[in-house]
Amino acid sequence: MTDRGPLTPCLVIRPGLSFWIEEQSPAHCRARLQAFQEGCYEDTRWVDRTGGLFRARSARLARPPSLREKLVPTSWLPVVVELGPRRGVTPEEVADLLEGVLRGESEFSDHVRPSAEMLLGRFRRATSIAELLRLAADA
User: Fold this and answer.
1) DSSP-H helix ranges across 17-75
2) Distance between CA atoms of 38 and 71, rounded to whole angstroms?
3) Residue of 104, 119, 113, 1 whose CA lies nearest to 49
């Protein structure tokens, strides 16, 4: 961990909705305009390989979208995510957050491979944060 925040890549968890691996620092993220407007970074938890968990305080577009970016739904826009302080987290706590996604009411678990149940079993057997990040990246 650094004074500036988590070490990337990070496992980003949107509780009950989704998770992904973020390669960029929170200050240099990207999102499609619609996803941003739907809150893709709101209330996310960022887990880095050192076992730090950072909760998103806010997310904002780094600049206003151009007219073209507003009209082209596949355009990626720069996003700045402000994170709160680091707290230590165990693999079990992270697996609990991931279980909330996989058992949640979103359609996210329909698109993971292997199945949500198999993936959850692998998350539960993970003995380190680094292993959880690797498993999430492969899902």
Assistant:
1) 33-37, 67-71
2) 17
3) 1
Q: Of how many residues is the chain composed?
A: 139
Q: Are 22 and 46 in contact (CB under 8 A)?
A: yes
**pLDDT one-digit tens code per residue, 26-66:** 999 999 999 999 999 999 999 999 999 999 999 999 999 99
Split at pLDDT 50, 70, 90, the class of 16 is: very high
Nearest to 29 by CA among 41, 19, 37, 39: 41
CB atoms within 10 A of CB 55: 13
Whether 98 and 135 have beta carbons less than 8 Å apart is answered as no
Cα separation, 114 vs 98, in Å, equals: 14
